[in-house]
Amino acid sequence: MTDYKIMNKSHIEEMVEIEKLCFNSGFAEKTFLRELENKIAYYIVSETDGKISGYGGIWNVCGVAEIIDIAVHPDFRKMGIGQGILEKLIDFCKKEDCLELNLEVRESNIPAQKLYEKLGFIKNGERKNYYDGKETAFLMSLKLK
Ligand SMILES: CC(C)(COP(=O)(O)OP(=O)(O)OC[C@H]1O[C@@H](n2cnc3c(N)ncnc32)[C@H](O)[C@@H]1OP(=O)(O)O)[C@@H](O)C(=O)NCCC(=O)NCCS
């Protein structure tokens, strides 16, 4: 059973652990603490059987939203949780009357690209050597109006 909640301080310790499992240089505790104070940020977490299983966050910059972070703990993948998180973020952006939701994703990150495509995102550009001066970023966008 998975619930989706707005992030608060008590979730951060587990979020940092998931960041370490998912990314080479993930967000540290202080980054998430800063995001709690950030007026344009909105983060939700998923809680599965009492454990934080994943989370995702956006920034709403004057009606154009950007995905800042999304991750699911490796033990909880392929269970629909990433999709659940993304759907909640999209719902929030619609409520906030955003024009579109944008993101960057590594060229090699097929699971994430498939997730975004499943929810209607379309690739609309790329940035060469964006990650570590080596890997291309695909730009993807979901029109909300
Ligand atoms: C990308 C990520 C968030 C997906 O989370 P998840 O909970 O495993 O995804 P879901 O179970 O909700 O899957 C939803 C859809 O995503 C796609 N998908 C997810 N994992 C996939 C995989 N390993 N291969 C191919 N498609 C995949 C499928 O379209 C899937 O729909 P389906 O089950 O009907 O086939 C997860 O793999 C993750 O945390 N990766 C590491 C962090 C990361 O890369 N974040 C994104 C940075 S841009």
Task: Explain this structure.
The chain has 145 residues and is an alpha+beta fold. The chain has a domain at 2-102: Gcn5-related N-acetyltransferase (GNAT) (Aminopeptidase). The chain is 30% helix and 41% strand. The chain has 4 helices and 7 strands; from the N terminus they run E-H-H-E-E-E-H-E-H-E-E. It has helices at 12-22, 29-37, 81-95, 110-118, and strands at 2-6, 41-48, 51-61, 64-72, 100-106, 122-131, 135-143. The chain has a 7-stranded mixed beta sheet, with helices on both faces. Strand 2 (41-48) and strand 3 form a beta hairpin. The protein is globular. The protein binds coenzyme A (COA). Coenzyme A binds next to strand 4, helix 3 and helix 4. Coenzyme A (COA) binds next to strand 4, helix 3 and helix 4.
Q: What small molecules are bound in this structure?
A: coenzyme A
CATH structural class of the domain at 2-102? Alpha Beta
Instruction: Walk across the major sheet and give the strand order.
Output: 1-2-3-4-5-7-6
Shape: globular
The CATH superfamily of the domain at 2-102 is: Gcn5-related N-acetyltransferase (GNAT)
CATH architecture of the domain at 2-102: 3-Layer(aba) Sandwich
- Beta-strand content bin: 35-45%
N-to-C SSE string, H for helix and E for strand: EHHEEEHEHEE
CATH topology of the domain at 2-102: Aminopeptidase
Low-confidence runs of at least 5 consecutive residues: none
Major sheet size, sense and barrel closure: 7 strands, mixed
Mean pLDDT: 97
What's the number of helices?
4
Helix fraction bin: 25-40%
Distance between the termini: 32 Å
Number of strands: 7
Class per helix and strand makeup: alpha+beta
What is the alpha-carbon Rg in Å?
15 Å
